[in-house]
Amino acid sequence: MQVQEEHFMRIAIGLAAKGNGLVSPNPMVGAVLVKQGRIVGQGYHHRFGWAHAEVEAIHDAGKAARGSTMYVTLEPCCFYGKTPPCTDAIKRAGIKKVIAATIDPNPRVHGEGMRCLRKAGIETMVGILGKAARQLNEAYFTYYKELRPFIVLKVALTLDGMLATRDGESQWITGRLALGKAQELRCQADAVLVGVNTVLNDDPRLNCRVIPGKKLLRVVLDSDLRIRLDSRFLSIKQPVLVFTASKNRTKTQKLEKKGAEVIRIARDRNGLLSWDRIIAALYQRQIQSVLIEGGAIVASSALEAGVVDKVYAFQAAKVLGPGKSLSIGMKPRRLSQAIVLKPVRHTVFGSDVLTEGYVMGRE
Predict the structure, then answer these.
(1) What does this protein do, in the record's words (predicted)?
(2) Catalytic pick from 54, 75, 304, 356?
(3) Is 325 known as a binding-site position?
(4) In terms of CB atoms within 10 Å, which end of the chain has fewer, N or C?
(5) Is residue 233 within 8 Å of residue 204, measured between CB atoms?
(6) Could you report the per-residue pLDDT of 314-335, keeping only the tens digit for each?
(7) Residue 75 annotated as binding site
(8) Is position 7 annotated in a ligand binding site?
(9) Could you list the residue range(s) of the whole structural domain that residue 301 is in?
(10) Domain count, the chain
């Protein structure tokens, strides 16, 4: 029986993943309806504000939903939001049993959804492939359980560990296939964060090309407000948040006229903007996931501050020589002080290799 339950839950998890980058601040959810060992309906949460996975599966099954078992990757919601409670739809459909992979960490649900179903006489079960379901929604779970966004660091570097030349040139270290994967990672995040040197040197748009129209918060760390007012970065209609330590009110007002939000925060003991303040401000703005894209100082300081949860490191088959490395400002004296990723997965993209893993102590 356990094997069969895992089989159907695995299908539900696969469906849920189709909503990656499209449903935040909601979680990715997939649902499968099974009757007499056969799938009679399935669905997933396509976009924020659209029907939830449970409702999609019920509509797909039609009359066959009555008497079926629902496999769902997250506890069904029990409150009115953008859509009515999924628990109401489940009760109306006559579903006899609901198997959820895990309980919803959102305090508005957190066990109440399953209790609501049990009160209606519906059998419930929790825990089938729970770890996989939580990992799929790791940003959502981090946001509600640890009250902070999930922080991902993406870097592209050479065989000798360089992120850019001495003059700051970094476009492009890796090839087309790796760049495509990097775009995918960007579009899965709620916010993308860079340092002002990246904006000055590369003048990137930092938009999401994989999911046109996605609202992506673009964050710049700019201690002294050096960002150019005529940059491409400020020219596109996507939200911008600038963190600074500068008291330059004139520049601040000009940036605000361009549509940017400017927040003044304190520096840390190293003279850099405080990561604690940055993360707290992003959490307050309901940002669940942040992708740090550079440059060298920002990436290194984030690692040194211990705020990074997961790393995606693209390594090109190139040797650059002296340039800007990932280890700027980091001075461990022993191997035991090294930042370790675990578990690790390697993927080849043409001549580039992606190493991804969780920072030990944050996994």
Answers:
(1) Converts 2,5-diamino-6-(ribosylamino)-4(3h)-pyrimidinone 5'-phosphate into 5-amino-6-(ribosylamino)-2,4(1h,3h)-pyrimidinedione 5'-phosphate.
(2) 54
(3) no
(4) N
(5) yes
(6) 988 888 776 667 665 556 667 7
(7) no
(8) no
(9) 147-359
(10) 2
